[in-house]
Amino acid sequence: MRNCSSYLEIGSRWGGTFIVICEVLRRMNPGFKRAIAVDLIEETPFIERYSNIAKDDGLEIVYFKGSSTSDEFKRMITEYKPDISLVDGDHKIAGALKDHMLVRQF
Ligand SMILES: C[S@@+](CC[C@H](N)C(=O)[O-])C[C@H]1O[C@@H](n2cnc3c(N)ncnc32)[C@H](O)[C@@H]1O
User: Fold this and answer.
1) Is 94 contained in some domain?
2) Is 89 near ligand 1, meaning CB less than 6 Å away?
3) Is residue 92 part of a domain?
4) Number of compact structural domains in the chain
5) Nearest CA to 34 among 77, 75, 70?
6) pLDDT tens, residue by residue, 56-97
7) How far is the CA of 66 from the centre of ligand 1 (A)?
8) What InterPro entries would the database entry show (predicted)?
């Protein structure tokens, strides 16, 4: 997990795993700059608070409320090109495979 500047989590829910992974990546990578949390639900207070704290350390947190199957999401990750992704959104095989095929190019 070295040389990683960005992280994407599809299906971030409350943000527990998201925050733990961000903190591990941040400590291991001086160039870790951006993390993207994606979920169908509103941004939770947990992620919102973390976002404010992380900003002071030079880490940008992007929250995308919507589906990983949307065109808007595709446009966003094509721009951001996350180095590491966790696919934990739609757990149906077709949904997980679709998410995987989308992020694997990065
Ligand atoms: C198992 S939970 C994620 C748990 C989280 N990764 C953690 O470890 O704390 C799955 C989440 O995926 C979200 N989800 C399901 N399908 C999705 C999709 N197509 N795009 C974005 N989020 C999705 C659900 O709303 C739910 O919050």
Assistant:
1) yes
2) yes
3) yes
4) 1
5) 77
6) 999 999 999 999 999 999 999 999 999 999 999 999 999 999
7) 10
8) SAM-dependent_MTases_sf
Task: Quote the longest CA-to-CA distance of the chain.
Answer: 39
- CATH number of 99's domain: 3.40.50
Token representation of residue 22: 């961000």
As a whole number of angstroms, the distance between CA 95 and CA 49 comes to: 30
Q: Is 48 within a domain?
A: yes
Q: Tell me if 88 CB under 6 Å of ligand 1.
A: yes
* Residue ranges making up the domain that contains 87: 6-103
51 lines ligand 1 (CB under 6 A): no
Residue 1 confidence (pLDDT): 72
3-state per-residue secondary structure call for 42-68: CCCHHHHHHHHHHHCCCCEEEEEECCC
Domain membership of residue 1 (yes or no) is: no
- Ligand 1: which residue has its CA nearest to atom 27? 13
What's the gap in Å between 54 CA and the centre of ligand 1? Answer: 22
Q: Is the pLDDT assigned to residue 2 strictly greater than 90?
A: no
Question: How much is the CA Rg of the chain, to the nearest whole Å?
Answer: 13
